[in-house]
Design a protein that fits this description.
Largest sheet: 4 strands, mixed
Low-confidence stretches: 151-159
Shape: extended
Order of helices and strands: HHEEEHEHH
Distance between the termini: 86 Å
């Protein structure tokens, strides 16, 4: 390889503990750099992906894309978390909330959330689709309002 540099390579400690510590230090440094950049974000968006690794442990990956006042875009993997037990929308929300806290980001700066459409990522989709269907046509909306008023009136009479 580089015979003249062999002495340098031989003096580098490659024990498992040293390598693990160095990898942790590099990871912490990268995270701190991203936290510093995130402090300057005017707006940001998230991409979430949940999958299962070879040990059947659910892994949640959170990617962030942020834009600062100078329109510089930063796009990075913000976190990867193991989800033990359930992987409901509530579990995923808690992980997102923790990540936002860690990076000192505010909910009102969040402009978009993207997922792969998995069931645990899109639990509100039927609700959104139904509301959009009702609101998209005047007749549907009027009928829904009329039915809603009738239900409200009947529940008041029942009390």
């Amino acid at each position: 390889m580089c015979p003249e540099k062999m002495d340098l390579f031989n003096n580098i400690s490659l024990s498992a503990r040293t390598v693990a510590r160095r990898v942790e230090d590099i990871g912490s440094n990268i995270t701190n750099q991203l936290i510093n950049k995130a402090n300057d974000f005017e707006w940001f968006s998230l991409a979430l992906d949940e999958s299962t690794d070879i040990t059947d442990t659910a892994q949640l990956l959170l990617f962030i894309r942020g834009v600062n006042a100078d329109f510089e875009v930063t796009e990075e993997l913000a976190s990867m978390n193991s989800l033990r037990g359930t992987t409901t929308g509530e579990d995923i929300f808690k992980e997102v909330e923790e990540m936002l806290t860690k990076y000192n980001l505010k909910w009102n700066q969040l402009k978009c959330v993207t997922t792969d459409g998995g069931k645990n990522m899109s639990g509100t989709e039927p609700v959104v689709s139904t509301v959009n269907f009702i609101r998209s046509r005047g007749l549907n909306h009027r009928q829904f309002q009329s039915a809603s008023h009738k239900l409200t009136a009947s529940s008041v009479q029942a009390d």
